[in-house]
């Protein structure tokens, strides 16, 4: 199926918020263990209102569109941090996440940045390593879940 990656627009905010919530609840079970207390705090800010703020704010939000629906979302900050990279459950392992990461990294390169950084849930660590990200050794625990820091040279 054809995949289009583009900058998100205001009209995408509701689909983006719904995608984030579904992806976290359904795909990140190894991190939150299916515990609503853990994932409810993780998804609390994943609202259409906040998605719109992210789309209109500094940085860049990209969406992957397949069959006229948002199937993935990626976000990069102006200082080179990957803030979001999520897909719909049925889009997992279809190349959507990789295409979003390519768009976010291109945004960083266009901004003159030399490195990309991110914090990964356990669910996504193998994926980021496959893209050339290396663990920095920094670990944060949020909402009872562990997030490891990764970095990649873009030059």
TrEMBL record:
UniProt-listed Gene3D superfamilies: 3.40.630.30
Protein name as it appears in the record: GNAT family N-acetyltransferase
Listed InterPro entries: Acyl_CoA_acyltransferase (IPR016181), Bact_Acetyltransf (IPR050832), GNAT_dom (IPR000182)
UniProt keyword annotations, A-Z: Acyltransferase, Transferase
Domain N-acetyltransferase: 3-155
Taxonomy, superkingdom: Bacteria
Keyword presence, Acyltransferase: yes
Pfam families reported in the protein's UniProt record: Acetyltransf_10 (PF13673)
Organism lineage string: Bacteria, Pseudomonadati, Pseudomonadota, Alphaproteobacteria, Hyphomicrobiales
Record has Lipid biosynthesis as a keyword: no
